[in-house]
Amino acid sequence: MATPFQNPLNIPVIGFCAYSGTGKTTLLKKLIPELNRRGLRLACVKHAHHNFDVDTPGKDSYEMRHAGARQMLVASHIRWALMTEDKVDEAPSLPHLLRQIEQDQVDIVLVEGFKKLALPKIELHRASHGKPLIHEVDEYVQAIACDDETELQVDIERLDLNNVEQIADYVCAYAKREQRAIAARRNPIEAECGCDTDPSKPMSVGQGVAHITAQVTPITETETCPIHQALNRVLADDAVSPINVPQNTNSAMDGYAFAHSDEGQGPYQVVGEVLAGHVYSDTLQSGQAVKIMTGAAMPAGADTVELRELASEADGQVRFSKPTKAGQHVRQAGEDIAQGQVALAKHTRVGAAEQGLLASLGFGEINAVRRPKVAVFSTGDEVCQPGEPLTGAGIYDSNRYTIMAMLAKLDCEVIDLGIIEDSQQSLADALTQASTNADVIISSGGVSVGDADFVKLALKQVGQINFWKIAMRPGRPLAFGQVGDALFFGLPGNPVAVMVSFLQFVQPALRKLAGEVNYEPVLVPAIAAQDFRSRLGRTEFSRGLVQMNQQGQWQVSSTGSQGSGILSSMVRGNCLVVIPESVAQVAKGDTVLVQPFADLL
Ligand SMILES: Nc1nc2c(c(=O)[nH]1)N[C@H]1C(S)=C(S)[C@@H](COP(=O)(O)OP(=O)(O)OC[C@H]3O[C@@H](n4cnc5c(N)ncnc54)[C@H](O)[C@@H]3O)O[C@H]1N2
Ligand code: MOO
Question: In this protein, which residues make up the domain named MoaB/Mog (predicted)?
């Protein structure tokens, strides 16, 4: 009988079980990049049966552990590892191990080993291996990945052990199903009626992001795109360099190329001249030099260049004013990128440098992920169209324009649905229509507790929408769910709340949808130039102006009044000062994290 297991996390966990020698690790090594490609961030847990160690005697961390530290955390700017001395008589506890995982940073945990646990698993089986079938004795095996020769007696989902994409499809579908089940377990009332009835329990920003990004399946359709239109597109394939860059070993300076010898200062006999785009057809002999221009291919036999300014040429001989170093001022063929090297990995968003790099490799077009299609509309009787007269109690529609501009920066195809009149049926019709064309629908306004409940009624009529309270300011109310196959975001009406909620929740979702894998916001430390508002249990996103102070440190000051209707605070600022829920107060001189938004807004 299986040992009971309960997933302690808010993200799905799935096991892989097999007899040793089936090729579990080989499969996982292919499956992990395939799942990454589909936007799933992964954690893996492996049960080792032997006394393993990842540390090496002589390393500080090893010595500190052996001196008696129960826990040892070693960290660098790219990686950290926590090692814990935790001797247990039986197998380690999987729930305990899972609690160590950063569940706001990953979407699913793949578990290898722990096969006695009541944990949903995929079995791997190879007939030629002659081992029994695990699912016949383990009811928690949900699917079997096997070869053609395997005969199955029971009705179980069959996958092809050699078809990584098919296994990835299964894992993605499992992740989606589990995510919904976890959401329902965490908030059964919300899951049932689609409304937030427990305002005393707001969701953290991290939970909101994790919940939203887990619902996003990256677009798999691709299209070719000419190189001059590649800016901001996401690569669907690795860009493998067809050439060496530079193509030839060439001179980095205007000067003289020669075969370096003990007489590094010359004289050398000048036997010719070679310009960029040309080649010197003979092989240089010892004691010979050619005049060479920057970028020109080095002649055969030459290995060193000296600058023209340091040379004096007379009677067909060149001498240098100081000794030269063998190999100086020469760029080797392929030193930037070698032929066959992945110059840019798939999932990369093409910026100016990337576009130039692709061009430098000769790509006339790229294979890009289809751009997300996003429909946007505004609601509210008071909301007026810019360019038309402002009604007495009206306000011009700014939200649709900030949202459309942020979408343009993310290279989305925007479908502008305008201002939709305040009626449940008009809104329901517009939403249904939008869901047939768009991957994502975004609205602003009408998600709080006001009287204009037709927005909520319309959303309930045509989709599955949850109304959340997020422990953040601004941007407390947020609606999220689905209308048909489209994801729906109902952003709060206040203009600053719209932008802050977009940056925190919509942006990562759209970047994942568009095929990017790294979509976490960039946060940088800065010194607070003044006290900042903060409250335990709520993330504050104050608008700030980050600048370098005279000591060369980043310093951030407030843009002034922080009301969530004051859109000019976003214009004056260049970053959000992110004060997490665990921080009770921020005083002048404290270090805070800021999220620069210049690139995105
Ligand atoms: N009793 C409560 N009142 C409010 C709460 C609450 O929890 N309890 N939350 C407040 C917070 S925080 C926010 S944010 C707002 C969000 O409310 P809604 O999303 O329902 O937005 P509206 O009421 O429709 O509008 C708020 C504000 O924004 C203006 N607006 C709306 N659309 C646009 C647009 N397209 N362009 C420019 N400005 C727009 C609208 O005129 C309102 O002034 O609720 C608080 N209240
Ligand atoms: O979310 Mo509201 O913007 O804090 O006013």
Answer: 375-512
436-474 pLDDT per residue, tens: 999 999 999 888 876 567 888 888 899 988 889 999 999
Q: Give the closest residue (by CA) to ligand 2 atom 4.
A: 474
The encoded tokens of residue 465 equal 């929408």
Q: What is the pLDDT of residue 84?
A: 93
Q: 395 CA distance to ligand 1 centroid (A)?
A: 12
Rounded CA separation 467/490 (Å): 9
Evaluated on CA atoms 36, 42, 47, 52, the torsion sign reads: positive
Task: Provide ipTM, 2 decimals.
Answer: 0.95
Amino acid at position 179, single letter? Q
Instruction: Dig out the tokens for 169 from the structure.
Output: 């499809």
- Euclidean distance between CA atoms 75 and 461, whole angstroms: 51
pLDDT confidence bin for 363, thresholds 50/70/90: very high
How many angstroms separate the alpha carbon of residue 427 from the centre of ligand 1? 18
CATH code reported for the domain at 222-244+336-369: 3.90.105.10
Q: Which CATH number fits domain 13-47+91-186: 3.40.30.10, 3.40.50.300, 3.40.50.2300, 3.30.1340.10?
A: 3.40.50.300
Residues with C-beta less than 6 Å from any ligand 2 atom: 473-476, 492, 494, 497, 564
Q: 250-331: what CATH class?
A: mainly beta
Report the distance separating Cα 569 and Cα 110, nearest Å. 44
Give 505 Cα–ligand 1 centroid separation in angstroms: 18
In the block, tokens 């377990």 appear at 185
Cβ atoms of residues 144 and 152 within 8 Å? yes
Q: Which atom of ligand 1 is nearest to the CA of 444?
A: 32
Strand 463-469 vs strand 383-384: parallel, antiparallel, or unpaired?
unpaired
Question: CA-CA distance, 204 to 183, in Å (whole number)?
Answer: 14
Condensed to tens digits (0 to 9), the pLDDT of residues 94-122 reads 989 999 998 888 899 999 989 889 999 99
Overall pTM > 0.80: no
3-class state of residue 203 by DSSP: strand
Taking CA atoms, 383 is separated from 375, 392, 419, 430, in Å, by 18, 11, 7, 17
State which H helix or E strand residue 160 sits in.
Answer: strand 157-160
Q: What would the two tokens of residue 573 be? A: 């600022």
pLDDT digits (tens, 9 = 90+) for 196-233: 334 446 899 988 998 899 889 999 999 999 999 999 99
